[in-house]
Fold each of these.
Amino acid sequence: MGSSMWNRFHKWKKEIGTDKTLTPYEPTLSIICDASPWLPNFKLATYDRLPRRIFHPSTKLSPMTSDHLLRHATFLAAFGYEVIFKKGIENVDANCLSRVPMVQTDSTDGMIINK
């Protein structure tokens, strides 16, 4: 990765890990989506075959599907997408995002952690 891309990656990773985005799950709240106009179509790659079966347009939902999965389906219905199955070993993008260490500073003394 080029240094510019690497810096953007760390910035995005830091934003994803903030309290603004990582909130506890609250089943009583409705789903709110601010869909970006520059991302109308995308592919949702998953290592689990279940979401592919649930969200595929020609597949009926199982009567045992939980409310949680139905909320995900409702959220994703606002987008144009294609769910594809990708083996974990082939899903390098997700591995990269989950394995790159994030440099954190302690708010009390400013020391770098995980250097």
Note: The beta strands are 41-46, 80-85, 104-105, 112-113.
Amino acid sequence: LLHPAYPNWLLNLKRFAHYFYQISKHSSVRLLALQHLTKIFKTYHTIYSEPIIRTLFSIFHETLERETCDEVLVQALRFWGQMLQQSSCPAAVMAIELLSKHAKQEKQATAVAVLVEALHVKWTQSQSIHTIKIYHTLVELLNHPLESTRRVALECLTQIRSNKTYQILLDGVRSSFLQLDVSTKAPVLTRR
């Protein structure tokens, strides 16, 4: 039922995850569920990138809300780190935007921090206009209500702006996209 050949397979995927949280009191079972979700993502993410990201985000958000076992939380964070590493840049940006908007507690902010660092890695792998989208996303996180999220975004931006490799990447992108809205009071990337 969790194969794309079946109707409503993404809905089935959601129900699969909810099922384990409703019936299982054992963290080992939830870890197995996360491993299964990871396998599904690795198998189908290139074909169904955006819908899978949205579905798994919903599942992951539930993990953060309900999970009491640190081991399961760590596994979930690793899973999302892997997801960002393997996703296309647009899907990666969408994931970080979705999660950052929902992060209201420090536990969730830790997840955002992990994802921001993964997004930072995506910056180094991309040589297209998506690099600018990633940069804008990091800048927007400077206004996030959680201090820890603002801090990790600032650290990533500092690395981006101080590394010559990133400057070379940006030279390959149209300069008109490098200017940010002045109303955001965010730093503007300048060429050196």
Note: The chain has nine helices and no strands.
